[in-house]
Amino acid sequence: MRCRQHNYRYTLFVQHTNGEDWQTEKINMIVAKMSWCPAADVYEVNDKIYVTLEIAGVDFDSIEIVLYEDAMVVEGKRFLPSIPAKGLYRIAEIRQGSFCFELPLSISVTPEQVESNYENGLLSIIIKKNSSKL
Fold first, then answer.
1. Distance (Å, rounded) from C-alpha 3 to C-alpha 49?
2. For position 111, what pLDDT does the model report?
3. C or N: which end of the chain has fewer Cβ atoms within 10 Å?
4. Rounded CA gap, 65 and 13, in Å?
5. pLDDT in tens, 58-70
6. pLDDT at 15
7. CATH class, 2-8+34-81+89-133 region
8. Is residue 16 very low, low, confident or very high in pLDDT (cuts 50, 70, 90)?
9. How many CA atoms lie within 13 A of 106 on its CB side?
10. 116: closest CA among 106, 131, 104, 101?
11. Confidence (pTM)
12. What's the CA gap between 75 and 102, in Å, rounded?
């Protein structure tokens, strides 16, 4: 698992290229997420934020925690074994492929303030708040 930090805010940029005022035109665009979001529990105490993600079957080395000025993003991938060529799914409820969990933060944190543990399919993240801003 890796933890990185960016010194800018987490946002989605949409570029309008025809040179006209974007506010006067109707923008015809559908933004579709190409990833799934794992189930999560998040709670906060005075000096820490606790995050637990349910990501059973995800390889620990594929998990990446990215810190922005205003958000924490956890990304990774889960792939299940493929079924035989003549196989037919009767039930397919387990999400596969890339996942992305986004948590807005009201405080700025650094990788040194983040602890993580992955055990029994649960990723536990503890974010220590900056004591000067409590």
1. 16
2. 82
3. C
4. 21
5. 999 999 999 888 8
6. 47
7. mainly beta
8. very low
9. 6
10. 101
11. 0.74
12. 9
* Three-class SS of 11-70: CCCCCCCCCCCCCCCCCCCCCCCCCECCCEEEEECCCEEEEEEECCCCCHHHCEEEECCC
10: tokens are 């987490």
Half-sphere exposure (CA, 13 Å, Cβ side) for 96? 7
Query: What does the buried/exposed string (b/e) look like for 56-91 if buried means 16 or more CB atoms within 10 Å of the residue's CB?
Result: eebeeebbebbbbeeebbbbbebeeeeeeeeeeeee
Give 84-123 pLDDT, tens digit per residue.
999 998 998 999 999 999 999 988 787 888 999 999 999 9
Structural contact between residues 53 and 95, judged by C-beta atoms closer than 8 angstroms:
no
Q: Which residues contact 127 (CB under 8 A, 6 or more apart)?
A: 48, 49, 50, 51, 72, 105, 109, 113, 114
More confidently predicted of 27 and 119 = 119
Q: What residues does each domain of the chain span?
A: 2-8+34-81+89-133
Two structure tokens written together for 129: 């708040």
Place of tokens 């979001």: 37
Q: How far is CA 82 from the centre of its chain?
A: 25
